[in-house]
Amino acid sequence: ILLNCGLTLIASTWTAIHPNIPGMDEGKLAITSRRLCIMAIALIAPELMITWATQQFFSACAAAKAFN
Q: What is the pTM of this model?
Protein backbone atom coordinates (compact mmCIF):
# COMPACT_ATOMS: atom_id res chain seq x y z
CA ILE A 1 0.00 0.00 0.00
CA LEU A 2 2.81 2.43 0.86
CA LEU A 3 4.57 1.74 -2.43
CA ASN A 4 1.38 2.37 -4.39
CA CYS A 5 0.76 5.63 -2.49
CA GLY A 6 4.32 6.78 -3.09
CA LEU A 7 4.22 5.95 -6.79
CA THR A 8 0.89 7.74 -7.15
CA LEU A 9 2.30 10.85 -5.44
CA ILE A 10 5.38 10.84 -7.66
CA ALA A 11 3.40 10.26 -10.87
CA SER A 12 0.83 12.94 -10.11
CA THR A 13 3.50 15.46 -9.10
CA TRP A 14 5.55 14.71 -12.22
CA THR A 15 2.59 15.36 -14.51
CA ALA A 16 1.35 18.42 -12.60
CA ILE A 17 4.62 20.34 -12.92
CA HIS A 18 4.92 22.61 -15.94
CA PRO A 19 8.28 24.39 -15.74
CA ASN A 20 9.25 27.24 -18.02
CA ILE A 21 10.28 26.50 -21.60
CA PRO A 22 13.94 25.41 -21.56
CA GLY A 23 16.63 27.37 -23.34
CA MET A 24 17.94 26.33 -26.71
CA ASP A 25 21.32 25.39 -25.25
CA GLU A 26 19.96 23.22 -22.41
CA GLY A 27 20.40 19.49 -22.73
CA LYS A 28 18.03 16.73 -21.71
CA LEU A 29 19.97 16.12 -18.49
CA ALA A 30 19.65 19.76 -17.39
CA ILE A 31 15.94 19.81 -18.21
CA THR A 32 15.28 16.55 -16.37
CA SER A 33 17.33 17.55 -13.33
CA ARG A 34 15.51 20.90 -13.07
CA ARG A 35 12.17 19.12 -13.28
CA LEU A 36 13.23 16.58 -10.64
CA CYS A 37 14.29 19.42 -8.33
CA ILE A 38 10.95 21.17 -8.76
CA MET A 39 9.16 17.86 -8.17
CA ALA A 40 11.08 17.30 -4.93
CA ILE A 41 10.18 20.78 -3.72
CA ALA A 42 6.53 20.15 -4.59
CA LEU A 43 6.53 16.91 -2.61
CA ILE A 44 8.28 18.40 0.44
CA ALA A 45 6.70 21.87 0.57
CA PRO A 46 3.69 22.25 -1.76
CA GLU A 47 2.94 25.75 -0.43
CA LEU A 48 6.13 26.95 -2.12
CA MET A 49 4.65 25.95 -5.48
CA ILE A 50 1.63 28.17 -4.82
CA THR A 51 3.94 31.03 -3.86
CA TRP A 52 5.98 30.50 -7.03
CA ALA A 53 2.86 30.41 -9.21
CA THR A 54 1.51 33.59 -7.60
CA GLN A 55 4.81 35.38 -8.18
CA GLN A 56 4.81 34.31 -11.83
CA PHE A 57 1.20 35.49 -12.21
CA PHE A 58 1.98 38.96 -10.88
CA SER A 59 5.10 39.12 -13.04
CA ALA A 60 3.06 38.20 -16.13
CA CYS A 61 0.45 40.83 -15.27
CA ALA A 62 3.16 43.48 -14.96
CA ALA A 63 4.71 42.41 -18.28
CA ALA A 64 1.31 42.52 -20.02
CA LYS A 65 0.59 45.95 -18.55
CA ALA A 66 3.98 47.24 -19.72
CA PHE A 67 3.40 45.72 -23.16
CA ASN A 68 0.03 47.40 -23.58
A: 0.68
